[in-house]
Amino acid sequence: MNIVKLHATTSTNDELKSRFRESVLPHLTAIYSLKQTRGKGQQGAQWVTEDGKNLTFSVLITEGVSDLTPFLINQVVSVSIVEWLKNDLQIQSKIKWPNDILSVNHKLAGILIENSYSGNFLSSSVVGIGLNVNQVEFEGLPKAISLKNITGKEFELEVLLISFLNVLKNNLRDPLKVAQDYNKYLFKYRQVISFESSNAVFNGRVEGTDKDGKLILRVDNELKIYDLKELKWM
Ligand code: BTN
Which has the closest alpha carbon to 185: 118, 108, 120? Predict the structure, then answer.
């Protein structure tokens, strides 16, 4: 494993992508930074956290990546976070489709994956993860939570990173098997809850995801498939 620590960068995803454009980097190279000046969240949002307190890192996946799909990578990463939290830190969490990890119904981590292609196949993937670790107050983010909020303990960022990377490395050896556990950890799996789509609120039962990562809901006894842009959790 090749781990790079930075004191500051714009975004660890951008930093890793730019370093990889300039030179060959080993599979599972990880960059973490104590500060991001332009941390990126999902759908063009910003990812803002208190400097030095949290894990903001990106991991490069190259080996075997041409056999994977973007959603398979998302599944392996999501399941790896949940299993790592459970087995190494005794913290229960769920995957809130498509990119959030929740614990006690609050957001503990977010995932932003940026893929590169060679023709129709993936050639590399930069997996960015923001994990709330030692920050205890989240002004303006009432739905956020950290490991310290949950356990009362402080954590060493690099120790956490190394133990997570070991789980990810292992899970990448058999992505299809790991992905089978995705539904088990899916937030609200087989439960009926409210969603919003096209300005209408409706109830749907979460039935899982299709191979492209769209969410399958049972609505009025019919299976319907939604992508992220068409659906909002209530
Ligand atoms: C989200 O939930 O919106 C996804 C957040 C992803 C944030 C991480 S922090 C490390 C990496 N670098 C970035 O700029 N973003 C990701």
Answer: 108
What residues contact 174, with CB distance under 8 A and at least 6 apart? none
Tell me: pLDDT of 229 over 90: no
Pocket mutation for ligand 1, best pick of 4, 5, 13 (most atoms within 8 Å of C-beta): 13
From residue 53, give the alpha-carbon distance in Å to each of 142, 151, 155, 166: 18, 15, 9, 22
Cis before residue 70, ω within 30 degrees of 0?
A: no
Torsion angle of C-alpha atoms 95, 7, 1, 86, degrees rounded to 10: -30
Find out whether the beta carbon of 46 lies less than 6 Å from any atom of ligand 1: no
Contacts of 62 (CB under 8 A, 6+ apart): 25, 26, 27, 123, 124, 125
Q: How far is the CA of 85 from the centre of ligand 1 (A)?
A: 18
Higher pLDDT, 63 or 228: 63
Domains, the chain, in order of start with CATH, read: 2-185 (3.30.930.10), 192-233 (2.30.30)
Q: Is 41 in the pocket of ligand 1 (CB under 6 A)?
A: yes
Q: What value of ipTM does the predicted structure carry?
A: 0.99
